[in-house]
Amino acid sequence: MQFSEIIKKQIDADTRRGFPTSFENDRERQDQLMRDLVGLVGEIGEFADLLKKVGLVLSTPGYSGPSLAEAAPQLRLELADVAIYLFRLSTILEGDLENDVLQKMKINDKRYQYLER
Amino acid sequence: MQFSEIIKKQIDADTRRGFPTSFENDRERQDQLMRDLVGLVGEIGEFADLLKKVGLVLSTPGYSGPSLAEAAPQLRLELADVAIYLFRLSTILEGDLENDVLQKMKINDKRYQYLER
Amino acid sequence: MQFSEIIKKQIDADTRRGFPTSFENDRERQDQLMRDLVGLVGEIGEFADLLKKVGLVLSTPGYSGPSLAEAAPQLRLELADVAIYLFRLSTILEGDLENDVLQKMKINDKRYQYLER
Amino acid sequence: MQFSEIIKKQIDADTRRGFPTSFENDRERQDQLMRDLVGLVGEIGEFADLLKKVGLVLSTPGYSGPSLAEAAPQLRLELADVAIYLFRLSTILEGDLENDVLQKMKINDKRYQYLER
Question: Which of D58, D89, D102 sits opposite C30 (nearest CB)?
Fold first, then answer.
């Protein structure tokens, strides 16, 4: 599926649910960016917390928790949540995430040229 | 462009540069997930720091910093960086981010049904 | 209680539990900093997630979740968790957090001089 | 220095600079918690970004960046910044961070009893 189409699908659903992405002024726009950033941080935190437990199982004798294989499906869903917040933040900023990612990849192509084998 | 194709493009470039995404055992896989999570947190931090400054301009008399319009291009590039780390984390977990996002959207469709207008 | 004494109390307990803060080389030290940073991000995520829900109650008609008064005790415990990771990170870096905070306050005294009333 | 005294010193300075910590209603209180959380995330991001670079030097042949010893003083100042935001968040929640940390330590004493040697 086209990247831009997936993003549009999410934003359409958000709009129907009353989670706005377009605003009348910068004060409201900035407030919503703050809220969605906080949402994104929450999802990253869930990912981090689960990954930490996987790591403790590997490094601390006697610590009980999930293996990486057991945690992977949940970890992947947390990443999907992060992606959804990313779509929202980009849209509020009137960005085109597909385009912005491709542009950033080009910048990195030059920046990391010296590491290419 | 297809979402999965963009992700593949990034992972191919990373592989050429010596930033690995495939591993022999869970210990190495977990270590790399940690490192990429830390990278992602760094990018989110840059986004947060710039957004904070935009907010202070709006709320604190006399504080000097960028307007939202001035900061937006940089904010969008930070989001692109976050996306790139997300592609890496998903790949290390042998996930399919396009599929995982679409699956999560379906879960949210049910969960937020009661908010639909 | 002295700030430095509280930190020492935490590190002593960690040591008894096998959560190390001293290392033989930079590779191990860096790995542990990564792990504790991930732990800290997990705690901040829990704080963010709960704060987000409080915000949605205030802004989204029909959204069900806790009030700020209901969430406050849990939010405060999450901050305590963040503080504990901070003590660990500072100790691994052979820092003196009390001293470092006081030094940073002095830097801020100059930096924000122009905002003083 | 007493932990509570250090916190008070910071909050007094913030008040003089127009960075508020007390509010008339939950809407304003929640907004400020969001803003300070975003500030805290920014500082953690700076810490993460620098720590990532230290890690890349250790793991990626040819990558140029600081050693842990070179980065440590800056990393410690970032932690001080995180601590300062923590003091603010706790105060806005009408918490007593010293007390909350000591309470959380007691909870952990029970929780991690099984790991004690």
Answer: D58
